[in-house]
Amino acid sequence: MSAKVKVVKRKGDTLPEKLYLVEVLKGMKTSFGHFWRNLRDNSRLYVRHYPEQQPEITPRWRGRHRLTTHEDGSIKCVACFMCQTNCPSRCIMIEAGERLDDRDEKLPVRFDIDLLECIYCGYCVEACPKDAIRMDTGIFSLVEHNREKMLVGLDELAATPGAFTEDDYQKRGL
Ligand code: SF4
Ligand code: SF4
To answer: Which CATH class is domain 66-171?
Structure first.
């Protein structure tokens, strides 16, 4: 089946069009028309008064990472390096240490994510066999004054709570 091609006539045949001035004035008429109409009544404009009015974040949205913990507060991560290996940006840096709580053999003694390198692809979450890393913090605004502060570490990752409840996931059929 051949694709239907709509041929659009190229403008610029007449003298006023070739001079551009008339076309520029026509464009300005449209722009100023919108400008005056919205100045008189802006009720039809979609304006979000950020940051006072925050956007709605859904559970599927990938925000800043966190490391999940067991009920007793111990970290779920077993330092298997799957997330680091699968990270296309190579922005996860893990150092493994011996684990002494009988849950597993290893835990991370260092777990850094460089948020300036991260592309928020979610591969780390997909690769994790322990559901130890998630991106459900709802944190979307990441602003700091220097690069060092964009390197988020183990303590901060483990201390950040998730932003959603089981109900939030069930309501959306996730
Ligand atoms: S979201 Fe993607 S880029 Fe960011 S840390 Fe995870 S795997 Fe790496
Ligand atoms: S977060 Fe998951 S994938 Fe990454 S090292 Fe820990 S257990 Fe392995």
So the answer is: alpha beta
